Amino acid sequence: MCELLGMSANVPTDICFSFAGLMKRGGGTGPHRDGWGIAFYEGKGCRTFHDPHPSCQSEIAQLLRRYPIKSRTVISHIRRANRGQVSLENTHPFTRELWGRVWTFAHNGQLKGIKKRPVSYFQPVGTTDSEHAFCWMMEQIRMRYPDPPRRDAALTALVRDLAEEMGALGVFNLLLSDGRTLWCRCSTNLAWLTRRAPFGAAQLIDEDMTVDFAQETTPDDVVTVIATRPLTRNETWTVMEAGSMVAFRNGERVG
Amino acid sequence: MCELLGMSANVPTDICFSFAGLMKRGGGTGPHRDGWGIAFYEGKGCRTFHDPHPSCQSEIAQLLRRYPIKSRTVISHIRRANRGQVSLENTHPFTRELWGRVWTFAHNGQLKGIKKRPVSYFQPVGTTDSEHAFCWMMEQIRMRYPDPPRRDAALTALVRDLAEEMGALGVFNLLLSDGRTLWCRCSTNLAWLTRRAPFGAAQLIDEDMTVDFAQETTPDDVVTVIATRPLTRNETWTVMEAGSMVAFRNGERVG
Fold it and tell me: What are the structural domains, with CATH classification, of chain A?
């Protein structure tokens, strides 16, 4: 199984602490030796890093641990290959542009028969089920809304329906964002946590590392972290139910 | 003016040497203090790095100088902002997917009235003339060829026509690739050089650095480098004529 990590915050926030825990799972404490990737939104732009090599050895991963890129929306994925060759084009997160927004997608699971679904506007570059599912979802969104819907809730409802349809084909744990909203859909494993004032200390499960967020934040900060499994041992994570979806914007739950 | 750098090779080749020269121009020897970006194709995948900050100070640029990513097709750009805010989404190269291929675009120049041209399939994320021109070109290519044309020459002919149409709007020095072909269109400044056996030593103009390619290559390697201005002082560069375009594939000229 792959590890997913997402963040939604109301101020640009670095994800170094959570990423440190996730990286350990990339060949260190976890079995995810087949590549990793991360997407950081900065304004309307999106910066992605992909590495088909194990994250615990990756030089780029080390850079990111040291170099605190601050972002309000982050999606990351550590891969355990079960479909598709290990290669750059098969490494999540995947990105496409729609409505002048950069969309980012990371998934764990397998989807039976997904490749029979026709895609035209958006076509996979690699050979994964996941990228095909992403292209199919983007195509449905574009067909339903050639222009962005006025109400964000309408978009969330559509994403929920599409995720449900994908979930019927297999395991579909999903992180998806258009740079504004972060949609998180749980098929088997996904948990989230919102940090806000008063901030305390958090201790990673996978590495001997503690951060006192009271030192790192201002009282108005709201930061939600989503991960396949809880990353810290002394905080209360909400473990999502199978088939459920949540949406976050600026760190707050909006759906 | 911005600096462009491209490479087309028949074997995965690192671009560290040329990049070292280009980086010096990013605030060092040149006036290009407004960000830089680079795209490396690896197989069908494409890895991009963008930094809105001056390249001569950038930590990511330093990483890339040390970390020899090997690629057969590279497009890089150092920006001097003249239109659009300095931000991640305005930093070249831009990418879009068409036909399951990642397309990459970098441009220097300004295009009068480009934003009046309608775009629908592909929409700009940022505010530059360049990204709008890219979206417009991609849309023309998609409309003319919903599926990829059988003959590469047909695609090259279309790119040439579109580049000419853009060139009528202003300065349009262009590097464009679909991961197979690298198209290079000169409006004011673009020069190229093909290195092949017997390889010799090359000396950078912008930095006191020499590489003996005989030590770095095998006799079958063919590597073409394209840059705004020649990067080395002891090799013979072909300085392109205004309005001309060349196409490279696997290091060899194909159009």
Answer: 3-253 (3.60.20.10)
